[in-house]
């Protein structure tokens, strides 16, 4: 069940601040407030989906395509073409804490030797 008062919904509505990297009709990308890597950006679709399982089943094809294009554009803005990871935590058991679907884009020197 999607909670319209989650923090990313507030950011999308302009009711909470964020440091924007990229925005279009389909998605918003912004800096993570508590980065876990040198670069740590979040990309959220403009639609009410709790996680990737919900988004991939229920979002219209245009929004799904637009969202992934926005992920790619964000990667290009960050200059990370061949040096980034994406993560989509799904469910509290996997560490998801904000239940508006989002992809983490992360890059860090230590990833070379990490898992
Ligand atoms: P999750 O654990 O759900 O995959 O990731 C949620 C992420 O959102 C966390 O990495 C956390 O640091 C980030 N976050 C939580 N609250 C805010 C906020 O108010 N602003 C921003 N920019 N990021 C947030």
Folded structure, characterized:
This protein has a single domain (7-110), classed as HIT family, subunit A (2-Layer Sandwich), CATH 3.30.428.10. A 5-stranded antiparallel β-sheet has the order 1-2-3-5-4, covered by helices on one side. It has 115 residues and is α+β, with helices and mostly antiparallel strands. It has helices spanning 7-13, 52-58, 61-78; strands at 20-23, 27-31, 39-45, 85-87, 103-107. The longest helix has 18 residues, at 61-78. A hairpin with a 3-residue loop joins β1 and β2. Guanosine-5'-monophosphate is lined by residues 7, 16, 18, 30-34, 42, 89, 95-98.
Biggest sheet character: 5 strands, antiparallel
**What average pLDDT do the residues reach?**
97
* Gross CATH architecture: 2-Layer Sandwich
Ligand species: guanosine-5'-monophosphate
Structural class: alpha+beta
Listing every helix as H and every strand as E from the N terminus to the C terminus, the arrangement reads HEEEHHEE
Radius of gyration (Å) = 14 Å
CATH fold name, please?
HIT family, subunit A
Biggest sheet, spatial arrangement of strands: 1-2-3-5-4
Q: Number of helical segments?
A: 3
Unreliable segments of 5+ consecutive residues:
none
**In the CATH hierarchy, what is the class?**
Alpha Beta
Based on CA inertia axes, which overall geometry fits? globular
Distance between the termini: 33 Å
